[in-house]
Amino acid sequence: MSQEVLSPVLETIVATATAAAPAFAATTPELRAQALVAIANALEANKPGLVSIAMRETGLTEARLTGEVTRTAVQLRMFADTIVEGGYVDARIDLADADFALGARPDIRRTHLPLGPVINFSASNFPFAFSVMGGDSAAILAAGCPLIVKAHSGHPELSDATAAVAAEAIQSVGLPAGIFQLIHGREAGVAVLRDPRIKAGSFTGSIRIGRLLADIAASRPTPIPFFGELGSVNPAFITAAAVAERADEIARGFLTSVSGSAGQLCTKPGFVFVPAGTKLAAAVSAAATELPEHRLLDPRISASFAERRDAILAATGVTPVIAGGVRFDELGHGWVTPTVVTVSLANLRAGREALLEEAFGPLSIIVETPAGTDLASLMPEFYEGNLTGTLHLSAEESTGTTANVAELQALVAAISQQVGRVLFDGWSTGVAVTPAQQHGGPWPATTNDASTSVGTAAIQRFQRPVAYQNAPQAFLPEALRDANPLGVPQAISPAGVSKQWGQRWG
User: Fold this and answer.
1) Left if phi > 0, otherwise alpha if psi is -120 to 50, otherwise beta: which for 478?
2) Of 89, 189, 214, 325, which has the fewest Cβ atoms less than 10 A away?
3) pLDDT digit string (tens) for 380-424?
4) Which domains does the chain have, with CATH numbers?
5) Model-level pTM?
6) Which is the catalytic residue, given 68, 145, 266, 368?
7) How far apart are CA 42 and CA 37, in angstroms?
8) How confident is the model at residue 3 (pLDDT cuts 50, 70, 90)?
9) For this structure, is 229 an active site residue?
10) 266 labelled catalytic
């Protein structure tokens, strides 16, 4: 594959990012932390104007968008503390050992270094939290990598406004020029992704586009890491005892999760498995008294949702619990109310081609399972991978002392094999921005199930490990020096212990 010639504008952007990479990688964690906090402060200071633009471009509510700005700022601040604390560099030091079990061991020290320029493709459904200054962008900058953001076509004005706010904040702390730039257009994004100076890519969006971009990244003469968050239906399992104990509470939480932001969330519960004969469907129907109409993000998503909804409603054995609806306005925007249906497990199996694909919007399927169903077997039967899996238990079942505990443990184990986050007695929408969060999962939830796009582990996606052998102190990264000037956690393997390895185990 020959190298494509970039347009003059894109060439300047990529060249500027490439030139900035060494200086940015050499900046102190404190300076990068100051930049992240400056961006967070600037976003919150400009919140009213940014939210106003976002409401107009996306149709999302003021309350949702205001909260999303706060979430974005919190994640930036969390990363600021993370990079100063330094555990993310995973500093490991094996001291030289003349009496090593396999012969003399050299001094070996390992840490992580920034990859270089990275392109991030913004999401449509989170115009702040997964867009210009969202989680991927924050992680890229925290890692010390120059960032090029491909703006989403669904909110171009907001992208420009957010970029202007962020650029001014970055400049205010004196970071190198060129570490943050914005581009528009799918062709421009693909051209930059193909450029050999770009060292990684990230993306949040559809399976089709994500796979296209991942294949481009993998097929380059020098393949690069690509971290895509793609599709997920987030199955939930509810026991009969849980329904008997709190059907109304579960139904209200379920509807809130399905209808929030018009169901345009990667964590929306798309399927709920419940024993046949329970009162969950009736409780959901009773709870659906006031579900306001909500605009979908754009006409393309509206048309796709309407098509998926029609296909699901037409499938054999599907019964509406809440019929919902789709109304198109003069601009092609879809205005929706939630749709919830039931189907038997047998009809789900028979109609899997029509039913299993994700419906991106406020629609969910309640699957009624017959007595004696091996619930653990349903995960590999229906799902390759998801961001989340949920289990609702009764209070007694939660103690782990009921007769069905082995069955429930097997179900949890099966869910764990195919998701990145397992929830109990809650709903998958709402991803807590905390250090331990895992927001990823096996394909097609993500392109790399060992990574996360939320939580402090997200930073390491944009770094690579390097080991130094017998290096003089002056030539080591500061994180690996004996004096440890950065004060980072260091895992030290001292001399003289290797011959005792494993002795306590037999």
Assistant:
1) alpha
2) 325
3) 998 889 999 999 999 999 999 999 999 999 999 999 999 999 999
4) 8-230+451-463 (3.40.605.10), 236-424 (3.40.309.10)
5) 0.95
6) 266
7) 8
8) low
9) yes
10) yes
